[in-house]
UniProtKB/TrEMBL annotation:
Residues 1-71 form the Ferrous iron transporter FeoA-like domain. This is Ferrous iron transport protein A. Keywords: Iron. InterPro entries: Fe-transptr_FeoA-like (IPR007167), FeoA (IPR052713), FeoA_core_dom (IPR038157), Transcriptional_repressor_C (IPR008988). It comes from the Bacteria. The keyword Iron applies. SUPFAM superfamilies: C-terminal domain of transcriptional repressors (SSF50037). Pfam families: FeoA.
Amino acid sequence: MTLSQLEVGETGIVKEFTDLEMSVKLMEMGCLPGEQVRVCRIAPLGDPIAIQVSGYQLSLRKFEASTIILQ
């Protein structure tokens, strides 16, 4: 399952990434393997997605969220 498939309020644990370039950017923002992420809000048209990770909120595009594989 990927982060983009979660609904508001659902949580998951980051397992790995599908895009090497994007993974570097996401890890710099706190989306490290083993971190718990929770979907806080989804924009009316589905893009972007606000998530809670490492104690703060982060906004990701749906494409970026689809590169994060959860446990």
